[in-house]
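Why should sequence recovery work at all? Because a backbone constrains its sequence more than one might expect. Tight turns favour small or flexible residues, buried strands favour hydrophobic ones, and helices have their own preferences. The token representation captures these environments compactly. In the example below, the structure is given first.
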């Protein structure tokens, strides 16, 4: 058994505990406080709006935006709330967010 190499992607993104490929986790753009604020601005959401849509406490959103501290579960809830409203987190030249193009726009 080959360990330490991701065969599917010919990379080194392997979970050391069970030798599974982590390419999908690594390729997901990082949710930063800056990207979070950008996504909220696209939707014209307040911190309270995001908290309600993500099913988390207002104080959790506030803490994340001021300190950058949030659990991965919380970040997934935030991502899911944005995704339901066609907003995605991006990592181009920097961190940010964008409104996904709808199929009707093609």
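From this structural description, the recovered sequence reads:
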């Amino acid at each position: 058994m080959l360990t330490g190499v991701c065969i599917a992607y010919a990379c080194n993104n392997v979970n050391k505990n069970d030798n599974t490929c982590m390419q999908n986790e690594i390729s997901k753009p990082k949710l930063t406080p800056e990207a979070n604020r950008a996504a909220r601005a696209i939707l014209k959401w307040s911190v309270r709006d995001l908290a309600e849509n993500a099913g988390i406490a207002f104080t959790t959103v506030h803490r994340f935006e001021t300190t950058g501290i949030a659990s991965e579960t919380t970040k997934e809830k935030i991502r899911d709330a944005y995704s339901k409203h066609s907003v995605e987190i991006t990592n181009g030249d920097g961190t940010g967010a964008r409104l996904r193009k709808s199929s009707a726009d093609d």
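A few observations help interpret the result. Confidence is low (pLDDT under 50) at residues 1-11.
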